[in-house]
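Lecture notes, unit on protein representations.

Consider one protein chain, 142 amino acids long.
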Amino acid sequence: MQASDRFNINSQLEHLQAKYVGTGHADLTRFEWAVNTHRDSYASYVGHYPILAYFDVAENESIGRERYNFMQASDRFNINSQLEHLQAKYVGTGHADLTRFEWAVNTHRDSYASYVGHYPILAYFDVAENESIGRERYNFMQ
């Protein structure tokens, strides 16, 4: 198989994944795919009355109660995806796999980089510690 064939196959796959929502992509984990599928399924159940009526009869509940239950279940998945979105948007908030120590190390490193990069903060530390700005910059870079 030539490189051009592989590129063509990959571009076709990406096209199909964009066309058919829910098929995922290379960066999507199995768990994320399952969460997305569950959330979208619940949203579909709420939006399609015949499916909702089927669940209504099968579980011997009212349609309103079934709709409420599906919306509550879908909100759980939606909250998790919102949390992941916020963690990606605001760097430094961490994620589920980050330990407390790793978070503290990252915070200290980023703080020192911010001190060195912002002259007014560096000047504040300079006055507070009675050192030159160059010495403070050197200390923070260590």
